[in-house]
Write a structure and sequence with these properties.
Elements: E1 4-8, H1 12-23, E2 28-32, H2 35-44, E3 49-53, H3 64-76, E4 82-86, H4 91-99, E5 104-107, H5 112-149, H6 163-172, E6 179-182, H7 189-198, E7 207-211, H8 217-225, H9 242-245, E8 250-254, H10 261-273, E9 275-277, E10 284-286, E11 290-295, H11 299-305, H12 310-316, E12 319-322, H13 333-340, E13 346-347, H14 349-357, H15 363-377, E14 382-383, H16 404-413, H17 418-424, H18 429-438
Parallel strand pairs: 1-2, 1-3, 3-4, 4-5, 6-11, 6-12, 7-8, 8-11, 13-14
Antiparallel strand pairs: 9-10
Helix pairs in contact: 2-3, 5-6, 10-12, 13-15, 16-17, 17-18
Length: 443
């Protein structure tokens, strides 16, 4: 896509020279010889950058006209990059406008290479910023649609990484499809199961949960399918299994990868026929149950080892929902932390920075525990970084990988000053340059 620049200058020779300069560098350029014409053109169409003079009346050198024009452009488009063309007499005024958000100032007569370098950098950053803005708007629309049309069961999310998962989950929730939720421990797989049930035809039916990973292998079959009195030593009375309890509703099998092979065989039969026998019984029971399963294990590796049945995997995995670890959805960290606060205390800026930089090996569950502990330990009304108890967990810390959005936002906030932008992110100047090079952000 070709960029378009607007030059506003009362000197038509300046406009002509800049048009030629940009034309030979594949940049579309238009000109306006007065502030009024320039503002009218900005209202009529979109531009990616403005280069404006600071004076438009003969024998005027104060720069006040340029200042007024700058603020009028800002009122039309707060994000549009603006380069000021200034004589040395207006340098102080240009510096003042830089503090108010002007992108750069170029002294007359300008150097073509310096002007082109500034323009290209600003066009790239503006294009990226516009893309991110569109992405955020689209995310908000899709998020609002989900929140208005579906019951999210109190789920807190603000990171775009969660959107495809939740859109798929709400889409398949109303079906009878078996769903396998994969993801690390503590990431919130049970919350996704609750969302599936809340938006299904089974929302008012039994919802039975079983943590297969917490049960001894010898008791799993009895837990799932029930046991009759006398089936084994200690079975003094008959007990209903979870499948029978979930009849007509939903059974959530967490940590399904821990189910022993004998239990897997019986589970496969239930999924195929709806039939099973309680432990110690020859009487066949028939149920209708929707099974939602979850695991933190790699079931394909388990199949290769022979510890998980491939046919069962395909039965359970009609739809797979992969829940990202908390480290892969950093925009969820602070909203979740606020969600877990129950005492009315607030998180300091330092605490929030530490929360965002921590690796969260224990995922959402660890975050909840950290916030709960911090509320108890914080003496004042504000939770400080030291209250979080994360400083001693150095082994769980990682070198925070900043996104291209982090870098560009910091540069925008500090008007392109690399030193200040780097400091705001806790980086050295050299580390900031390395990340700029990585993302193709020109210096």
């Amino acid at each position: 896509m070709q960029h378009k620049i607007l030059v506003i200058d009362d000197n038509t020779d300046v406009i002509k020279a800049l048009k030629i300069l940009f034309l030979i560098n594949d940049i579309d350029c238009e000109g306006a010889d007065s502030p009024e014409q320039g503002l009218a053109m900005l209202q009529a169409q979109d531009y990616d950058l403005v280069i404006q003079d600071m004076n438009f009346t003969s024998d005027t050198t104060s720069g006040e006209e340029g200042k007024a024009l700058y603020h009028q452009i800002r009122a039309l488009n707060p994000d549009l990059p603006i380069i000021l063309l200034t004589a040395w007499a207006q340098l102080e005024m240009a510096v003042e406008l830089i503090k108010h958000g002007a992108a750069d100032y170029i002294a007359k007569p300008w150097q073509d290479d310096k002007l082109l370098s500034s323009v290209n950098n600003l066009l790239e950053m503006y294009q990226l910023q516009q893309s991110q803005t569109r992405s955020k708007k689209q995310f908000k629309l899709r998020r609002d649609k989900l929140c208005s049309e579906y019951d999210l069961s109190g789920l807190t999310f603000a990171d775009q990484a969660m959107l495809p998962l939740l859109e798929t989950a709400t889409q398949v929730a109303c079906s009878d499809a078996q769903v396998l939720i994969t993801g690390p421990n503590g990431a919130g797989k049970e919350k996704i199961a609750e969302l599936l049930v809340a938006n299904s035809a089974y929302r008012d039916k039994p919802f039975i949960r079983v943590n297969a990973g917490a049960l001894p292998a010898e008791l799993i079959e009895a837990e799932l399918f029930g046991v009759v009195s006398g089936a084994y030593t200690g079975a003094t009375k008959s007990r209903e299994g979870r499948f029978a309890a979930a009849d007509g509703g939903t059974l959530f099998l967490d940590e399904i990868g821990n189910l022993p092979l004998t239990g897997q065989q019986k589970l496969l039969r239930v999924l195929q026929t709806g039939e099973f026998e309680a432990v110690g019984s020859s009487k066949t029971q028939k149920v209708k149950v929707r099974v939602i399963s979850a695991t933190n294990a790699n079931l394909n590796e388990a199949i290769a080892r022979g510890t998980f049945r491939q046919d069962l995997y395909y039965r359970l995995n009609m739809i797979e929902l992969r829940l990202p670890p908390l480290a892969e959805r950093p925009d969820d960290i602070i909203p979740l932390a606020h969600h877990f606060l129950t005492s009315g205390k607030l998180l300091s800026d330092g605490a929030q920075r530490l929360l965002k930089r921590y690796a969260w090996p224990g995922n959402v569950r660890e975050l909840q525990n950290v916030i709960g502990r911090a509320e108890l330990l914080a003496c004042g009304e504000q939770i400080e970084a030291t209250d979080l108890g994360l400083s001693t967990a150095a082994s769980a810390m990682v070198n925070h990988e900043f996104s291209i959005e982090d870098i560009t936002q910091a540069l925008d906030k500090h008007q392109g000053n690399v030193t200040h932008a780097a400091k705001s992110l806790g980086l050295s100047r050299q580390a900031m340059y390395r990340r700029m090079d990585k993302f193709g952000i020109k210096r």
